[in-house]
Amino acid sequence: MKLVITIVQDNVANQVLGKLTTAGFGATKLASTGGFLKTGNTTLIIGVEDTKVSSVLGLLHDSGATVFVLDVERFERI
Fold it and tell me: Which of 47, 52, 54, 71 has its CA 20 to 30 A from that of 22?
């Protein structure tokens, strides 16, 4: 399993979130602020199976996102 952390500009966040949910991916949306220009950003946290990472990246491709993909050692839904 992978954890995809995506940072997008506020003005495209809802569009990106819509693409993800339409494709069947759940995401947690967090408000964030960029360090350089202190502009509003949105951080999306997405947990996906290893085989689905390329699909998520494809949906994010045109959004100008900064993306981090991390290995998940353990996942539990409680």
Answer: 71
* Buried/exposed code over 39-65 (b: 16+ C-beta within 10 A; e: otherwise): eebbbbebbbeeebbeebeebbeebeb
| 42 vs 31: CA distance, rounded Å | 5
The torsion of the CA quartet 34, 31, 4, 48, rounded to 10 degrees, works out to -170
CA distance 3 to 71: 6
Segment 11-67, tens digit of pLDDT: 999 999 999 999 999 999 998 887 666 778 999 999 999 999 999 999 999 898 999
Report yes or no: 20 and 56 within 8 Å, Cβ to Cβ.
Answer: yes
The structure tokens listed for 65 are: 């996102």
Task: Name the residue with tokens 């408000």.
Answer: 31
